[in-house]
Design a protein that fits this description.
heterodimer; A: about 425 residues; alpha+beta; OB fold (Dihydrolipoamide Acetyltransferase, E2P); Chloramphenicol Acetyltransferase; four-stranded antiparallel β-sheet; 12 helices; about 30% helix; about 25% strand; B: about 325 residues; alpha/beta; Rossmann fold; 2 domains; seven-stranded mixed β-sheet; five-stranded mixed β-sheet; about 35% helix; about 20% strand
């Protein structure tokens, strides 16, 4: 049996992928489910899994090369299967690979980037013969257009939905790569690999949907007309961090023997989670007809990476202790920098926190990641003269600015949340309440 | 069951209905003395006399209008057109009088009238005498359209058409008159209008068709079987009323449809039925529906060109392969 290896959509928004490295080589025995290669998507580096058994007969896309979702980048087949018709696809993909990657071009013979020498020898005489099917095969294998629409027949669409199979994980055998009924049946029979969740979804008991009142709808409509799709306003609070600094010192002293530490940011995250529990209207998603208020706090923590930003999510942050929150943030941040986060690890936050204090930023505003309704921008702690009981004294002060989606959060609600947060940080024992 | 020709089956239906109901009479060119141009009315003049088997002048508009009047007066005329190609002269009486009378008289005048005769092409009769006329009649609300493809259907459906209180265009086939088949001997064998019949069962593709074309479809299904492709052949039998349930059922089973009709593609019966399929069974389709029809040209006289213009089993096989993507 011949199984084409496709560039798969490994993130919800992926349109093309770059081949980081093959973990299998041509000639290797492959079992269904084996990890074939690492693919860099627009978000992370993901594993590409084999969809069939046999031998990895051909690789069409070299490391560093880029291919559109749906393109054939390799062939798994029995050792004796005739795969000549599939080889035709190499033309299209190798062109993309050469164009998309200087690395691939320099690492191998430039003109033959995707055609291993052995195959060249055996196919030398059929340049012309291969030309005709090449067109057909190339156009057979592009089920997903650049607009992200998967081409599938109506019945295939329905059956896939009933079976809970994502169409983007099925290779189409119809004209133009259209997914047809037999492709879905094959996928049902052979199974598409499990790591289907391309984003995180909350369990039903984790939230409450509050239908949008007419007043809220009117507010939403007017504000959107006024200021943009997410009508945002900002609330800034200035607070005294002395007690947090003291608390951190004593906690770290306790943890010293274990070689562990907590950061100021860990304490801020813990307090945010606690405050959100008290103000569920700020821990919410905007869905137009309703607002989804979450019981659980899934805290997105913005992490800067080399060429962008990603927001790993501390799941159920309200139930976790400082040490665990800190450990998770650091572990996920490290993997984010290596682009090894899975989609379910960076989606589904109920609220986000961004901290630029370490860059010497005094205060800033952060941009809401919809459908979340709020994000907290945390500045650095600065020694500041303030008046306390009539005396000018120097205190470590910190500013936090919350961006609020006005369709979900009103000024007073956001302010009350910040009040709670400020109280918790100025008197950290309040977090225990 | 008795084996008889399509012609004999029609003759039997006429005889039985004329025996059953004295209001039924037959009128048309050469239906009496000559036993009908295609001998469908053989022996009826002797049996029922010239009051009930009436030779008309060569004047389609005249005898059709007279028959519409007879129906208004309470009789049940069966009007024979030598072929539906000649009935264009009379279509004003069919569409403007018969099909609208019940509606425009607010139900005062039921219109129990049958217009029958062959439709479609025979062999080398050229452009004016080789037309499949089903769509002209099915286009107008108020007229039922029946297209039997076998002797049994011819008998059972003609009896139903004569008993029906609405105008029925009953469209036969010149090349079918000699076709033999089994017919139930029961003289109350009536097939209700609007019920399709699965002429062959398969699971890979549905060939939906009617009239003479069922034989082309069955021939194609036989060829496809040799390649392991099993086709459902659904004979609509009546174009109006349409058995949409049966169509949806076969679409649900096979997910792929080839529509076959003898007429032209433009606004043909297939245009209507394909539209209804996508409206009612879209989520069951695995491929776009293809139609096999006569070429969109006046029928050529030259034999070789006529063969190329008519829908054939090979055309159907080709269309089936296309909808199956193989």
């Amino acid at each position: 049996m011949i199984t084409k290896v496709h560039m798969e959509a490994l993130s919800p928004t992926m349109e093309e992928g770059q081949l980081v490295q093959w973990l299998k080589s041509e000639g290797d025995d492959i079992s269904n489910g084996d990890i074939l290669a690492e693919i860099e998507t627009d978000k992370a580096t993901m594993e590409l899994v084999a969809r069939g058994d046999g031998v990895l007969r051909r690789i069409f896309l070299d490391a560093g090369g880029t291919a559109e979702v749906g393109a054939v980048i390799g062939v798994i087949a029995g050792a004796d299967d005739d795969i000549s018709s599939v080889e035709g696809a190499s033309g299209g993909v190798s062109a993309g690979a050469a164009a998309g990657s200087t690395e691939a071009a320099s690492a191998t013979e430039p003109a033959e980037a995707a055609t291993p020498p052995a195959a060249k020898a055996e196919s030398g005489q059929k340049e012309d013969a291969a030309a005709a099917p090449a067109v057909e095969v190339a156009h057979m294998d592009a089920p997903e257009s650049t607009t992200g629409r998967v081409k599938a027949s109506p019945v295939a669409r329905r059956l896939a939905e009933e079976a809970g199979i994502e169409l983007s994980r099925i290779a189409g055998s119809g004209p133009g790569g259209r997914i047809v009924k037999r492709d879905v049946e094959k996928a049902k029979e052979e199974g598409v690999s499990a790591p289907a969740p391309s984003s995180w979804a909350p369990a039903a008991d984790e939230y409450e949907d509050v239908s949008t009142s007419q007043m809220r709808k009117a507010i939403a409509k007017r504000l959107v007309q006024s200021i943009g799709p997410v009508p945002t306003f900002y609330l800034t609070v200035d607070l005294d961090m002395s007690r947090v600094i003291e608390a951190r010192k004593s906690i770290n002293a306790m943890l010293e023997s274990e070689g562990r530490k907590v950061s100021i940011n860990d304490i801020v995250l813990k307090a945010v989670a606690g405050a959100l529990r008290q103000h569920p209207n700020c821990n919410a998603h905007w869905h137009g007809d309703y607002v989804r208020r979450f019981n659980a706090v899934h805290l997105g923590v913005a992490v800067a990476i080399d060429d962008g930003l990603i927001t790993p999510v501390v799941r159920n942050a309200h139930q976790k202790g400082l040490i665990q929150i800190g450990a998770e943030v650091r572990e996920m941040a490290a993997r984010a920098r290596e682009k090894r986060l899975k989609p379910e690890e960076y989606t589904g936050a109920t609220f986000s926190v961004s901290n630029l204090g370490m860059f010497g930023i005094h205060e800033f505003t952060a941009i809401i990641n919809p459908p979340e309704a709020g994000i907290l921008a945390v500045g650095g702690i600065e020694e500041t003269p303030v008046v306390v009981d009539g005396d000018v004294v120097v205190r470590p002060r910190m500013r936090m600015t919350m961006s609020c989606d006005h369709r979900v959060i009103d000024g007073a609600q956001g302010s009350r949340f910040l009040q709670t947060l400020k109280t918790m940080l100025e008197e950290p024992t309040a977090i225990l309440l | 069951m008795a084996v008889m020709t399509y012609r004999e089956a029609l003759n039997q239906a006429l005889r039985e209905e004329m025996e059953r109901d004295p209001d039924v009479f037959l009128i048309g060119e050469e239906v009496a003395e000559y036993d009908g141009a295609y001998k469908v009315s053989k022996g009826l003049l002797d049996e029922f006399g010239d009051q009930r088997v009436v030779d008309s002048p060569i004047s389609e508009l005249g005898f059709t209008g007279m028959s519409v009047g007879a129906a208004m007066a309470g009789l049940r005329p069966v009007v024979e057109f030598m072929t539906f190609n000649f009935a264009f002269l009379a279509i004003d009486q069919v569409i403007n009088s018969a099909a609208k009378m019940y509606y425009m008289s607010e139900g005062q005048f039921p219109m129990p009238i049958v217009f029958r005769g062959p439709t479609g092409a025979a062999l080398q009769l050229s452009a004016q005498h080789s037309q499949a006329c089903e769509t002209y009649y099915s286009h107008a609300p108020g007229c039922k359209v029946v297209t039997p493809g076998t002797p049994a259907d011819a008998k059972g459906l003609l009896k139903a058409a004569i008993r029906d209180n609405d105008p029925v265009a009953f469209m036969e086939g010149e090349l079918l008159y000699n076709f033999k088949g089994e017919v139930p001997e029961d003289d109350d064998f009536v097939i209700p209008l609007g019920v399709a019949d699965l002429k062959r069962e398969g699971s890979d593709v549905s060939i939906v068709t009617h009239g003479k074309m069922i034989h082309v479809a069955l021939q194609a299904a036989g060829k496809l079987e040799k390649d392991g492709i099993e086709a459902d052949v659904l004979d609509l039998r009546t174009i109006r009323p349409l058995d949409m349930d049966a169509i949806v059922e076969t679409v649900k089973k096979t997910n792929r449809v080839v529509y076959l009709e003898e007429g032209w593609p433009y606004a043909g019966t297939g245009a209507q039925i394909v539209t209804m399929i996508q409206e009612e069974a879209f989520d069951h389709l695995d491929a776009p529906i293809l139609r096999v029809t006569q070429a969109d040209i006046p029928m050529p006289y030259a034999k070789n060109l006529e063969m190329l213009a008519k829908p054939s089993a090979d055309h159907v096989v080709e269309a089936v392969r296309k909808v199956l993507y193989r």
